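Q: Here's a chain of 246 amino acids. Please give me its 3D structure as tokens.
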Amino acid sequence: MNGTDAWTRDLPTPTSALAIGAHPDDVEFGCGGLLAKWAADGCTIHHLVCTDGSKGTWDADADVVALAARRQVEQREAAARLGGANAGEVRFLGHVDGELDSDLTARGDVALVIRELKPSVVLGHDPWKRYRLHPDHRHAGLLAVEGIVAARDPHFFKEQPYPHHRPDALLLWEADEPDHVEDVSASVDTKLHALLAHESQFESTMKAVDDAEIERFRERIRTRLADLGAPHDVDAAEVFKLIQSL
């Protein structure tokens, strides 16, 4: 357990969770195993996707309007696969892929969703990850953090129709300094099943355009989760920065 003694692990299953991703598929990559585990234990799983995913292709001549529409369909299917009977809302802010900003308008939009859905736990990208290249991931992470602050305090966005709401915890994936581990050994297959709903991303994101490459993609994910779990003596894990003083 070298270096992991101070980690927390396995939060009690919340009544509801809201995962905030920059693009369709980010939630499944970042916390799909945990969401599937919680859903199987009765938690309602909500998704909020900040951008339209319209740049998610290597095809310079792609119809990006059609791609954005397809990615919404894929995201809804992935959410259904993760959540099963406990799949909740899937919301899209609709910002153009690559052009997301953590401005006041977007912050208010996120706060509105938090106030409406009242999640016990919010999950998102860690906006402070070092050397991050993609701006959407950074801004989506900031929106998750800043959206919680705005949603919890009654004097932010007082024109909104829902009362203020303070979640119990925030989990940030992609963290440079994670301090919380979740055993997802029983939900790896569900995470993979949800990821493979994002068929438009097989070439660009998953590097998988045939059955053999898809199987290699599965093995890469399994290996990654096993490597994260090994220091904590579990077969597969997802790790996060946990913030509970909200």
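Q: Can you summarize the key feature?
A: The two ends are 29 Å apart (CA to CA).
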